[in-house]
Design a protein that fits this description.
Blueprint: H1 33-43, H2 53-58, H3 69-72, H4 76-92
Amino acid sequence: MNYWNKDKDKKRTNWNQSLRSNVKTNRPKKIRKSLQYLLVLKKFNNIIDYKNVKLLKAFLTKYGKIRPRRKTRVSVQKQKAIAKAIRKARAFGVIPFTCDVKI
């Protein structure tokens, strides 16, 4: 039995269908990155506060920079409020200005 006639018994109705067996694996569904930030905001009832460290950490990179709006996909008003809360939290010492990265 060679490569060309090993799948003779399988019939395709559409050329877009795969010749592989229809074995489905139970993988957890991935959440798109852009949707992830909206879900974080929903978790905290869309209340942006400088004392809420868990919410603010979600919008910071590993280096301590504020994530851009094109990555987070939140509205302009929410992004400005988040940036303002992060700057206020940094000023009060709730979160650090930069993160220590070992080189």
